[in-house]
Fold this protein.
Amino acid sequence: MQIFIDSADINDIKEAKELGLADGVTTNPTLIMKSGRELKEAIEDIVKIVDGPVLAEVVSQDTEGIVKEGREFASWAENVVVKIPVTEEGLKAVKILRDEKIKTAVTLIFSVSQAILAAKAGADFICPFVGRLDDISHNGMDLISEIVSVYSNYADIRTEVIVASVRTPDHVIQSGLIGAFGVTVPIKIVRQMAKHPLTDTGIERFLQDWEKVKADIN
Ligand code: G3P
């Protein structure tokens, strides 16, 4: 299971890396804005510490502009993947970049039909947003199940699903049960994944008992 870190903050990525996570990193314009850095500067720092795919998102809306941005991003490092919103113009750009052997991830996926189009255009990855679907009372994880089922029916589809807009550790667990290629998680969710109240009380009790052992020895 691939765990990507959904952040452009180098400290988040370093923290995840120390935990053996950070198989890759996903960014978007909001995350770049939050990092307070320029896109190129942020991505160049991330690729210094992450070997896996590092997703950088375009902001152009037309095919020509998207392709231009994509070619530039791809020149920054071998593991940069061009993240492109799922529009008709975006899908045309995916096909052009694929033919140039530039890797792409199609983002803002909210339906199976969009996932099918992204796969047919030749996307290496798609990022369906589960949390934002949950926000409008749809079941985000149902979308993941359906996409993974459809993709697995066809050997010629090699597009990998990176579950995005992850809001809870349960989204990660459900992604694993479904067998999605990976998830992209904010560092906050990584920290939540590590926590369990019984672990905390268990450690507390062990330490109390250890103090008693030491007292007996002395
Ligand atoms: O990578 C983008 C995606 O994960 C966005 O998440 O929480 O803004 O819906 P969120």
